[in-house]
Amino acid sequence: MPIKEQKFIWSNGELIPWADAKVHVMTHALHYATSVFEGMRAYQIKNGHTVIFRNFEHIRRLFYSARVYRLPIRHSIEEIMQACRDVVRENGLKAAYIRPLVYLGYGEMGISAPHEKAETMIAAYPWGAYLGEEALKSGVDACISSWRRLAPDTMPAGVKASGNYLSSRLIALEARERGFGEGIGLDAAGTVSEGAGENLFVVMNGKLYTPPGASSILMGITRDTIITLAKSRGYEVVEQALTRESLYAADEMFMVGTAVEVTPVRSVDRLPIGSNNRPITTEIQSAFFGLFNGETRDEWGWLDPV
Ligand code: PMP
Questions:
Q1: How far is the CA of 257 from the centre of ligand 1 (A)?
Q2: CA-CA distance, 231 to 144, in Å (whole number)?
């Protein structure tokens, strides 16, 4: 999907023209993937205002990711949250995808060379449904990838590091090449982990199940949102390891994430999920989008005004 260029990018404390936001080819992060990032969305809500969805939780995760790889951010959490609001507002965006990135810049090439500071940039631009509007309605056809997700003692899956997305890229490319909409990775134990860029939920006998942190997943903020919304509607949500065959046995299945929002899964490995009648997925989807169209009250302070 092509990037829609905007006026400004926030870079190390200031808004600079989009075209000037450049790095040198010897930037450490380009060579060693020494970078961590976030993907967030701003929505225009019913009263016409623009809000960033769970700004704090995303930026807190960005700081956690940076801490694990020793990337010293020069700003506070509040400063980065404010910068996200500024970049949306100053570009005149009503709704946007927001991409903060923290990376090691130019100057040192040693893999473990200490860097006194990391660079931080934030871009925002309009971005529609990641797997397409049609997928939001009708669901995606997914497959189990031949690529496993990262084992817990290889690289931390709960850190949103750019390097983890090499695994996601292989999974997504394989899926597309085989004619599927999205690929799902198994973890080192052979149980279900997550999609290339999203967490998974299955519905069985009226209960929701989702793989736990130990299944090599990114602890998604949308996942947490869905767990909270489902529980508040009286559903039991169980975080447990899921076998591949439990997907085939599911009554319903859906993927969640900032990009895909809440997208139904129509089939896995060409086996249709349930009867493709999805009352609980539809209810959860409406509860999620209801946060923005005013039908779900934000009891949790998740909507951060721009
Ligand atoms: N897993 C992976 C691998 C992802 O890339 C994403 C998207 N960031 C998610 C899960 C969902 O995370 P979130 O809901 O925080 O966007």
A1: 5
A2: 28
